């Protein structure tokens, strides 16, 4: 289960996407990006991201003019490492590159 503060789902699925899917492939002959379009780029869908529970933390923030609390991008810092550690504990294989794909585990 993933903890979401104030319903912000985007940062968490963003880092899961980066860790598991995103890769820029370049053509060795031309140096150009080979997967420059969404037709060639693997984009996760809803089934790739686990169910999330929205948890509202306390009341409004008295130090913010509109009372909101946010995590921002700081929540992304450890996500890739956490996913890599989960893969290590599940498979016994330490992967030190992203995206973590099956060919790196075999």
Automatic annotation (TrEMBL):
Species lineage: Bacteria, Bacillati, Actinomycetota, Actinomycetes, Streptosporangiales
InterPro entries: AldOxase/xan_DH_Mopterin-bd_sf, N-heterocyclic_Hydroxylase
Superkingdom per UniProt: Bacteria
Name of the protein this chain belongs to: Xanthine dehydrogenase YagR molybdenum-binding subunit
PANTHER family: ALDEHYDE DEHYDROGENASE, BLL3820 PROTEIN
Gene Ontology molecular-function annotations: oxidoreductase activity
């Amino acid at each position: 289960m993933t903890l979401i503060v104030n319903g912000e789902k985007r940062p968490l699925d963003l880092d899961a996407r980066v860790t598991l899917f995103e890769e820029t492939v370049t053509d060795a002959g031309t140096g150009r990006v080979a997967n420059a379009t969404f037709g060639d780029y693997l984009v996760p869908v809803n089934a790739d991201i686990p169910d999330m529970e929205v948890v509202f933390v306390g009341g409004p923030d008295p130090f913010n003019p509109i009372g909101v609390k946010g995590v921002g991008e700081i929540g992304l810092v450890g996500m890739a490492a956490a996913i890599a550690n989960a893969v290590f504990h599940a498979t016994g294989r330490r992967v030190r590159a992203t995206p973590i794909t099956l060919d790196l585990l075999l």
